[in-house]
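Regression test case RT-17, inverse folding.

Input:
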């Protein structure tokens, strides 16, 4: 397969909100990149801190642009960054990552290897002491090391929903669940670049021409935009291109509880986004997938109800409405499609 690029320009898009310290660490790591042909576009989503002052600090070290977001939502923020950039490769990352010095070099290397590479991702390593700040990791540990109830729940989750491969890298399963292997140190020992189903959300590199062809990041994924990144991955694969995981394209994710994190309790948007993603890209179109999907929906709603019981946050119960609305919309949409075929 022929090469597409020689030495492409890279645009790094960073949505941010009230995370001055995290953003400063992120920008520090970008000043140390071995690959130098890149720009940084910061899209500020309503910060009340001193984040904007960082532009002056790094103006002499980075080609940096600072934008004020005009429309709410992470997908909108990313799209605004893309529109104000001009790199052949676009990278969407988070403000709470620290990139290793060869991060961009390793991403570019994979793109340059073949014209059929549509996207590149890599490890997003979360330190063990910070994993508790993400529900998936916290509850996965409970299901591995907890009491009899948690152990039984873990067997269902790991063996049925994750099909016995909970630590595989970059994989979506028939239930709609996805693996977490790219967040653990063991993936750094992989020797080869491999093809995967999707990007890591904060380590997402795509060809600009393909991103434009699919219409950018889909803003119908509401709230904090869960699944809008995976939606991009699946659309690019549908065009006939490959998403590659390079174990040397490493970022360290240091999850913050500030900024956009505070919007996470809204389970209505998160369930609605999941169902829309599933019907669009995986689909319950066989008896096996149908049972796995609806079983996983029950599992997810049980999780949110448990969260409500422990936090007393009413927004956790939005999952029930999100599930009903998501199913109704997608079932109706499918009926309309079937009628149009007649």
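Golden output:
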């Amino acid at each position: 397969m022929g090469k597409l690029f020689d030495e492409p320009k890279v645009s790094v898009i960073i949505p941010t909100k009230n995370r001055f310290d995290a953003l400063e660490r992120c920008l520090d790591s970008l000043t140390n990149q071995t690959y130098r042909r890149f720009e940084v576009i910061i899209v500020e989503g309503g910060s009340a801190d001193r984040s904007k002052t960082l532009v002056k600090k790094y103006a002499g070290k980075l080609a940096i642009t600072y934008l004020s977001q005009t429309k709410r939502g992470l997908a909108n923020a990313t799209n605004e960054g893309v529109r104000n950039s001009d790199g052949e490769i676009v990278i969407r990352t988070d403000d709470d990552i620290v990139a290793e010095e060869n991060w961009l070099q390793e991403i570019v290397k994979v793109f340059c290897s073949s014209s059929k590479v549509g996207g590149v991702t890599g490890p997003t390593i979360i330190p063990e002491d910070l994993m508790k700040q993400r529900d998936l990791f916290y509850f996965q540990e409970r299901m591995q090391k907890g009491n009899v109830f948690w152990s039984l729940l873990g067997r269902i989750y790991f063996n049925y929903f994750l099909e016995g491969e909970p630590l595989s890298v970059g994989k979506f399963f028939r239930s709609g669940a996805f693996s977490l292997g790219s967040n653990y140190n063991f993936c750094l020992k992989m020797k080869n670049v491999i093809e995967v189903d999707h990007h890591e959300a904060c380590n997402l590199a795509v060809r600009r021409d393909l991103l434009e062809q699919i219409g950018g990041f889909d803003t119908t994924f509401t709230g904090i935009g869960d699944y809008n990144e995976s939606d991009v991955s699946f659309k690019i694969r549908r065009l006939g291109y490959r998403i590659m995981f390079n174990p040397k394209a490493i970022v360290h994710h240091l999850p913050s509880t500030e900024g956009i994190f505070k919007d996470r309790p809204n389970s209505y948007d998160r369930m609605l986004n999941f169902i829309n993603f599933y019907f669009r890209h995986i689909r319950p179109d066989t008896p096996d997938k149908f049972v796995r999907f609806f079983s996983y929906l029950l599992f997810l709603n049980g999780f949110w109800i448990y969260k409500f019981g422990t936090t007393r946050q009413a927004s956790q119960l939005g999952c029930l409405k999100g599930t009903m609305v998501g199913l109704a919309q997608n079932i109706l949409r499918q009926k309309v499609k079937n009628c149009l075929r007649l």
